[in-house]
Amino acid sequence: MIGFLIKKTFFDAWDNLIGLVVSNLGFLVCVMVGLGSFQVSAKMLPLGILCLIASFGLLSFHIIGLATITDSYSNYQRAGFSGYKKGFRHYWRHGLFLWLMIAVIFCMGFIIIPFYLQMKSIIGLIFGVIAFWLLISLIIAIPYYIPLMVRFSGDKPLKTLKKCYLVSVSNTGTTIFLLFYNILQVALGLVTAGLLFSGTGIMLSAADSFKLLMYKIDYLEEHPETNPKEIPWEDLLYEEKENVGHRTLKGMIFPWKD
What is the pTM (predicted TM-score) of this model? Predict the structure, then answer.
């Protein structure tokens, strides 16, 4: 399943390369606003904080706007700008909640954990470690937030977050892989000036991961006696593999050799 996931995410991105680049420009704007807020803070701290909070909002609603688009890419379709507008209309409540989650992640990573650690006491160390693992658990679970939001659009934001933890805990192998895969995409995004991989690539890989996991989840619901380690992936992913096609990286670079 992991091997096919890598192939699917790569070709989904390749087939929608222009859309990927355009969407990542939005992430670059959010990052620029966030970095600019630190410069403003040096002169006017309250204004800088407001700019930083605004950048979190821009980021969360850009992600919400892209939710339908990346979901369409995962399903071999193209939603276009109409999909972006649909994201705002349908998921604005989730956007507000995601805004809060981004702020929480930032505060925990850059304010709360450093504060406890600089106390240089046992109590500070204990609370710092607890906060650290809470942060890690949130970072691991949050990639499933957007796919779950799209799949179960009737759920409230908090219920969607709870499902994120359930999916991540019950699929630890895929979740850990997705974590390191996203770290790699961030690194490659830095190399490509944020135009490739980066934010949209991370969203697309999350959409693909969750889509493939749903085959497993649905199968186990229909066959509860099945050992999760004995999932018939070849049968479950047959249609997906046919949709992706029998393409290879070698065939893309040297098509005459196929």
Answer: 0.91
